[in-house]
TrEMBL record:
Protein name: Antitoxin HicB
Ranges in coiled-coil conformation: none
Domain HicB-like antitoxin of toxin-antitoxin system: 12-87
InterPro entries: HicB-like (IPR031807), TA_system_antitoxin (IPR051404), TTHA1013/TTHA0281-like (IPR035069)
Pfam family name, one: HicB_lk_antitox
Amino acid sequence: MFLGESTTMLSYPVNLEPDTNNTYLVTFPDIPEALSVGDDEDEALLNALDALETAIEAYFDEKREVPMPSKAKQGQPVVTLPALVVSKVLLQNEMIRQGVRKSELARRLNVHMPQVDRLLDPRHSSKIEAIEAAFRTLGKRLKISIA
């Protein structure tokens, strides 16, 4: 799918446990910074996506590689990132691997820094063409498939 990653999406396994307050606690083994709760399992899992995206923002801010999800155990719930967020996670990770800073990416793309900041903001609705261009400057190609 993307950059030779072995998975077509980023689906993070979660631990869903009843809490002492008659709520459910969600934790992510791969992203320990992401925690969520909900009044029932459905609400906890819905809130978990927001918690996961918030934790990913912190990884971006700290210029740390976002860990890839481990394989879920049979019957274990997962939270799947939206495709646009997946592409941004993979872009950020590739930049870190190659040692490319945001200023260098801006120079290569011939754009201003705020445009790169938005490109690397998981919550910003970037255009896929801009992400494709960023991958090209890193010598990579974005491939999308439907399963």
